[in-house]
Amino acid sequence: MTSELTYEGTLREVQTDRGLLKYHEAGDGPPLLLLHGSGPGVTGWRNYRGVLGDFAEHFRCLVLEFPGFGVSDPGDGNPMVMALASVGTFLDAIGVEGPVDMIGNSMGGIVATNVAIHQPARVNKLVTIGGIGKNVFAPGPGEGIKLLMEFTDNPTREGLVRWLQSMVYDPAVVTEQLIEERWALATEPLTLEIAARMYSSKAFAANTAAAKASGMTPYWAQFHKIKAPTMLTWGRDDRVSPVDMAMLPMRDIPNAELHVFPNCGHWTMIEAREAWVSAVLAFLTRKDGQTE
């Protein structure tokens, strides 16, 4: 099935009160929502195109393109805030009721985790790829986040390559084709401006200070509220969200299991593709512990 799925053939769109949301749809069965990460030139299609066919054999896969990343309408807020708000809006707009399985990569994992905390009725099973939690031993922010801020402050091709290489264990994964497609979208003026709301060094510092001053309980201190069975997946060699971040969600999410893949960076679904797909499909399709 993988070879049959194309960008154009799976692309859909729906008009909402948050603007036009685009998404990719493939397969039949229970709904599976796939949420992408952040960073220069990212899209849901690019995060999941290599595994979409595998999951489409079992699920109705819905790959949402978050506002502000150059595919769906841009929006006028912080990309993380817009992403979180868009999930419920999207599911309602396409008529998906009841809990759905969710896979979230990095920022998408944080979004899915927040949905599981605050809107538990929307999430059946939860799978995260790196990203969530809090640094326990490694200093924060991680190397990959620092390189992301450097690129956002000064968007050069060399800076993009440095950031991309921090995402992986094997530098060969960063091909010229990958660099070129990421560069084209990452330097689109509006997309770059929206990214700066989150990842410029100035915005990052301001957002961090604002979060501390707000007195609000951070999401990582609310893991105990998650009712959904949860699978945490991590690359052992992740330089964006070091694997020690997994200790907190692994311990505090009541029904969580942790899978760590060797010789693998931040893109677990790409660098550990076969092992990751096998483990995630086994988790999503098994009957034990499934929510009612």
Compact description:
This protein has 292 residues and is of the alpha/beta class.
Features:
Pimeloyl-ACP methyl ester carboxylesterase, 292 residues, Rossmann fold, alpha/beta, globular, 41% helix
3D structure, described in words:
It is a single chain. This protein is α/β, with parallel strands linked by helices and 292 residues long. The protein has a single domain (2-138, 217-285), classed as 3-Layer(aba) Sandwich (Rossmann fold). Helix content is 41%, strand content 17%. It has 13 helices and eight strands. The protein has helices at 7-10, 44-48, 52-56, 79-93, 107-118, 143-153, 157-166, 176-186, 189-199, 201-214, 247-252, 268-271, 273-285; strands at residues 11-16, 19-26, 31-35, 60-64, 100-105, 123-129, 230-235, 256-261. It has an eight-stranded mixed beta sheet, sandwiched between helices. β5, α5 (107-118) and β6 (123-129) form a beta-alpha-beta unit. The longest helix has 15 residues, at 79-93. The protein is globular and about 50 Å long.
CATH architecture: 3-Layer(aba) Sandwich
Helix/sheet category:
alpha/beta
Query: Could you tell me how far the N terminus lies from the C terminus, measured between alpha carbons in angstroms?
Result: 30 Å
- Whole-angstrom Rg: 18 Å
Note poorly predicted spans: none
| Count of helix runs | 13
Broad CATH class = Alpha Beta
GO cellular component, one term: membrane
InterPro entries: AB_hydrolase_1 (IPR000073), AB_hydrolase_fold (IPR029058), AB_hydrolase_sf (IPR050266)
Keywords: Hydrolase
GO molecular function, one term: hydrolase activity
